[in-house]
Specification:
Helix content is 36%, strand content 18%. The chain has 148 residues and is of the alpha+beta class. It has a 4-stranded antiparallel beta sheet. The longest helix has 18 residues, at 21-38. It is globular.
């Protein structure tokens, strides 16, 4: 406060950078389309800026065990603002992030398929895909992220 008890507040009008369900739907649709092209059913998760789940789809035939993995890939990618593929490279024995998978109460997943979502250069969420090979998961997550 200052100047006779007047509180000056900065202009708080800024573009909303939150990932919402309406943002997640086209992203999931693009990832589903890519999964169909690959011939591999996938689990696809979208997380918001806080790493919280916004939406998840388990395609017909996708493994139940990959639901958790896809959600954790989205969390991991948002938590560290890096693809899980890149994080995995640095999390191998002798790497600078070796052991990181044990952090965050076991929520960190270091398999390819997690990609941060950016708006105006800022990470605002992430997508996580699981079920196929690492290359398939990364390609599918990339397709989804491209729709964001």
């Amino acid at each position: 406060m200052g100047g006779g008890g007047v509180l000056r507040v900065a202009n708080l009008t800024q573009e909303c950078s939150m990932v919402r369900l309406e943002d997640a739907r086209p992203l999931i649709a693009a990832a589903e389309k890519k999964a169909q092209e690959l011939g591999q059913p996938m689990n696809i998760a979208v997380a918001d800026e806080g790493g919280n789940l916004v939406a998840h789809v388990r395609m017909d035939g996708a493994w139940l065990g990959s639901i958790d993995i896809s959600i954790k890939k989205a969390f991991t990618s948002r938590a560290f603002d890096i693809t899980t593929q890149e994080l995995a490279k640095n999390a191998q024995p002798g790497g600078q992030f070796y052991g990181i998978h044990a952090s965050n109460d076991g929520r960190v997943m270091i398999f390819a398929g997690g990609i941060p979502l950016k708006k105006n250069g800022k990470v605002v969420g992430a997508v996580g895909v699981s079920e196929g090979s690492g290359d398939q998961n990364h390609a599918d997550a990339t397709a989804g992220a491209s729709a964001f």
